[in-house]
Amino acid sequence: MAIYNIPLQATPNQRLSVDLGGQNTTFSLAARLGKLYASVAVGNTAIIHSRVCLNNEPIVREAYRGFIGELYFIDLRGGNDPEWAELGSRYLLRWETV
Description:
Blueprint: E1 2-6, E2 13-20, E3 23-32, E4 35-42, E5 45-52, E6 70-75, E7 91-97
Antiparallel strand pairs: 1-7, 2-3, 3-4, 4-5, 6-7
């Protein structure tokens, strides 16, 4: 099993690309109405669009989407859902393979 922390900035809206196990993955994070939402694409194919980010809950839940591994946020100080102001410090975005 491999675990990789994806580097994030403490900004409300951001987009980044990273290679995850040979998958050219692009993340978009957007803060709206007190929640953080994620969109995920592999190459030019959208996998997830505007899914609410919850603590320790998979972002790409469905196996049929063909995404290798799992993405999820963790709260290093408890069990809160991620907030943009503490991304990269308190709230980490992780990719994990089995």
